[in-house]
Amino acid sequence: MDQRLKKALEHADYVTTFKNQKRALKEKFSKDTTVYYCGGQFTASREFISSVLSLRCDIFVDNNSTPIEIKDKEDFYNVLVEAFTKASEDYHTEYKKIVNSERTVQGILDV
Amino acid sequence: MSKGILVHAFNNEDINYVKQACMVAERAKKYLGLPTSVITDGEVPEGYFDKVINFNSPYNYTSRLYNSGHLGKHLTFKNNARVQSYNLTPYEQTLIIDTDIVICDDTFKYCFEQENPLLMYSNAYHLGQNLDYNEFKKISDSSVDFYWATCVYFVKCKQNKIFFDLLQHIEENYRHYRMLYQITQQTYRNDFAFSIAAHIMNGHTKGDFVNPMPGKLYYTIDKDKLHSIKDDTLTFVIDNNPIKTKGLTVHAMDKYSLEEIL
To answer: Which residue of B68, B150, B167, B208 lies most exposed, with the fewest beta carbons within 10 A?
Structure first.
């Protein structure tokens, strides 16, 4: 095979694998930012977290459009912050690993 | 209330579902801290299961195409016990899962911590790049929403008794319902029966009789190879490209590659 084509195809495989791994990390981040609290399912996003303590209302509509009463909003806030922070840090750490890995398919898989 | 996992394991000519069920039981204990019971027509090894429920199906078995990579083979498919799950489960709160679900996290345990009596996935996400399988959105081109019978959480209650009785009726009269819901596939499929039952119980419309399972259902199809399982890290080969997941529970549909690994 022409070496120019061979190298291009190897790079294409690397790019595909990189995209696959990034998507897997993104899904992991999405899973890790999902918080189950008082029987409801919530997504710990920056916007949602910042709104939790700013309103007096104790009723929160969860991801499945179910209204959930949360009496201890302080604890709910802390749980959301912890989930979001850990998920973001893990996402960043793992992403850095694949970015800094050897730029080959095997290099990414060895991370 | 008692709670646990329920798996159906009926071996055929090539696939050892009981072996897969043992894997599910081990991982359910490790990641969810829950016992697993098995419904089967064969022998099971000791030490894996909370309860072994023998079920010798009175119905004719169907046949379906099993793919392994790009090779296909028609094998016996014994799938008509699932609609009996309500009567056969030893638990008040039951999570039925397929034997090819590789549990890698504790998401399923949240089923048992919420109040809805019936949960199923209607959406699922393929791990490959940008693949969108329309066959998992509706049960036919002009028909109703698709629900996955792969994972079903239910509580023993009056409405679920009605639901499962209806499922048995649909299974027994599948030919009629297949025509009614314009399903082209001839083989009886639990996903279709559950989808039809959900539609009927919703008053023949969309509704929230069935609520969503926690988290997302990730899957790979039978043409995608499962390459390795190492604790919560799974490596797949999808369209000749590898993908490694960590801490994500995945429905790995290629039974052959799963069997090779176990």
So the answer is: B208
Look at the alpha carbons of B55, B56, B61, B67 in this order and tell me if their dihedral is positive or negative.
positive
**What Å distances lie between residue B104 and B9, B26, B120, B248, B254, CA to CA?**
20, 11, 19, 5, 17
**B167-215, pLDDT tens digit by residue?**
999 999 999 999 999 988 888 899 999 999 999 999 998 888 999 999 9
C-alpha gyration radius of chain B: 17
Stated pTM of the model? 0.89
Closest CA to B242 of A18, A30, A111, A25: A18
Which CATH code is given to the segment(s) B3-261? 3.90.550
Q: Is B246 on the interface with A (CB under 8 A)?
A: yes
What are the φ and ψ backbone dihedral angles of B99, each rounded to 5 degrees? -75, -15
Q: What is the ipTM of this complex?
A: 0.83
Q: Do A21 and B243 touch (CB under 8 A)?
A: yes
Domain boundaries, chain A: 3-109
Taking contacts as CB-CB distances below 8 angstroms, the residues of chain A near B107 are 31
Q: Does any CB of chain A come closer than 8 Å to the CB of residue B143? A: no
Domain residue ranges in chain B: 3-261
Helix (H, G, I), strand (E, B) or coil at B150: strand
Contact (CB, 8 A) for A14 and A104: yes
